[in-house]
Amino acid sequence: MTASHLARAMTTAAIAALLLAACSTDTQDEAPAESTDTPKATSPIDFNLPDAERFHRAATYPVYLNRPAGEDPAAETVAEISTVTPDGNTLIYTDAAAKRIGFLDIRDAAKPVGLGTLSLEELGHADDQPTSVAAVGEFVLVVVDTTGGDFTKPSGRVDVVRVADRTRVHSIDLGGQPDSIAIAGDGSFAAIAMENQRDEEFTPPGAEEGDLPQPPTGFLQLISLTGAPTGWTPRKVEFDVEAARAAGLDTPEDLEPEYVSINSRGQVAVTMQENNGIAIVDGRTGAVQKIFSAGTASVSGIDTAEDDTVDQTGSITDTPREPDSIGWVDDDHVATANEGDWKGGTRGWTIFDATTGEVVWDAGNTVEQLAVRTGMHIEGRSESKGPEPEGLAITEIGGRPTALVASERSNFVAVYDVSDVTAPQFRQILPTTPGPEGVLPIPSRELVVISSEADDAEARVRASVTVYGFGAEFAGAKPSFPSIVSGDVDDAPIAWGALSALSADPADENRLYTSTDNAYGPSRILGIDLTKTPALIDTQLPITDNGQPVTLDVEGVAAKPDGGFVLAVEGEEGPGNELVFVAADGKIEKRVSLPADVAAGLGGQGLEGVAVDGDAVWVALQREVKTDPKGVARIGRYTPADDRWEWFGYQLDSTDTEGDWIGLSEIQVHDGSLLVLERDKLNGPDARVKAIYRVAIPDGGGATGAEAPKVLPKTLARNILPDLQANRGFTQEKVEGFAVAGNGKLYVVTDNDGLDDANGETVFLDLGSAGQALGG
């Protein structure tokens, strides 16, 4: 075992020990499923803002829908930075992947309409890429990187395009490779960060690969916007190397300006991400007024090991912030999103005094804790920069100065009241599709538009523009996000995600049980309090085998009336599928494998759901056994008393989408029938099948081996697709769990896959009375 592997193993063992200590009880076998003295976590955040004081998701528009006629819908197309025309009605976004800009009609915020695209090849060269856009008057300034592959000869331009007819009226040579653009509030000038970015695969003499210096250095361009566009010319602002060195910047001979923002006095704030610096420039005279270091931060209570375990005992020490986006909170303070680059990143955001350069507030670990608390933590980035706050915008909403901070990896925008720059107050979390890059407030319409840069056509998780509206007039999306959160134990939220199952608590009508699958380990059974809004995960019970925590791919959970649980555990291959019987204290009592001839016919999609009905245990297999007819999945009945398996067939629906498949996700016993959750592999606008079907419990026995089972008739009980679409987000693929609680209500939950090939949003639906919800 290597030293790194040993460290990870010790970390996993340590967190497992903490879980055991937190959740241990003296429960006997006959005790109820959850001991009444199990400590309950509480939420430190009240997510329940009145409708009039919160953002509501109005629409999610996948930008591949705005592609040119005849283009393959699977071609990569993204939305990175956006701007809006002065009337607030036409959104314009950059699509660097497809080397074009796109136009959307957002007059109806709930129904964006694609207005087509403008290829940069029409304006210059097929290799040109847009880096930013900014609307001014009847024009949009399109910032274009024309460097190609030669980082030693950076080049770029600004094209002035008339929005009405999309014709270029002027082009301005920038003398280098540009990144961000900002327009002064009075429209008098523009500022452009000229990054002249480094080659991440080049090794400078005496340095490491991708390191600095890699000349030429970057600078700032100022463009006066007075008069006709044909008269607009740039004015170069260079930064003094010695002043940057005195300020403590990383490599002052090679500055790389990243992002710009302009205050009401015309001062330009510029981040120099790789150099961990910030500059303040008088945008009217070009005078550099201040250069200061963004400094370092030490952050504890974070997950720093990529080991499939959310271990919040990690820390980073004296790490450079390396800010990306910047925004003026007021004329004297700037806020930065500290994404980091190759040497830093502190997983939060910071407010600085722009005159002195001193920190007045820092987020510490709170952004990462927000991700964990809402199931949006991406464990696969733990060793890097965690949630990676990248985008940031400052606006005024509801009379409050407001900061909007985008987490590039955890796929959300956090909203803060920054009325007091020394004590920002968290207000809300807004989910997005993967890779939120651009955050665009439209104050005149009380909208915020978020554009996302990650596009995965194979997984059908597409880059989108998400529109949020502030105030009660935009209410209506149900449920509001987050619909389920976790409480804190010892100042750390219970880690969760990839919820794969639901089960009623036999001892409490207002509680459910769920579990994470193997995206997060060790395995735990989580308790949900349904009396809270959002629903609150407030207990965690680790699963142990011979006294040691284990990680299982738990896909189904059934709480037994007399205490304990039955788990449906999916294997990587058929023989790994098993029922696991667990005592009320989490100890594994028995493992039951599937019959060998059935297991041999399964691939990677096996046991998905489990339910207890008296002396019998019902299970659902997700996909067909290879020896069975195509399109027929299996429902199984296991009788523990005589260790007997019986099998029945279930006819799956179908779609006409290439590459799609249909499978089962959950099974429950309710009102004398079996209820089965069936879903397709599709999400977003492609989603077709997300439904609960009712199946009569068979009177006789079933098949006992690999022989084809008798197919049971099914009737539709609930089409869940409209319920998922009602929140106006990107429709989730993995509807994985449902249950009828003791209170008589039907609940449904989606599996966010730990943010792997998914946008990470978990939807927890309260569909009301089960009798009405299921057509009874």
TrEMBL record:
Hey, what's the signal peptide range on this chain? 1-16
Matching entries from SUPFAM superfamilies are given as: DPP6 N-terminal domain-like, YVTN repeat-like/Quinoprotein amine dehydrogenase
UniProt keyword annotations, A-Z:
Signal
Q: Which residues form the Phytase-like domain?
A: 495-753
Q: A Pfam family matched by this chain, by name?
A: Phytase-like
- Which residue intervals make up region (Disordered)? 307-327
The protein's matches in PANTHER family, at most eight in alphabetical order, are given as:
MESENCHYME-SPECIFIC CELL SURFACE GLYCOPROTEIN (PTHR46928)
Tell me the protein's name.
Answer: Secreted protein
- Which organism was this protein described from? Mycolicibacterium vanbaalenii (strain DSM 7251 / JCM 13017 / BCRC 16820 / KCTC 9966 / NRRL B-24157 / PYR-1) (Mycobacterium vanbaalenii)
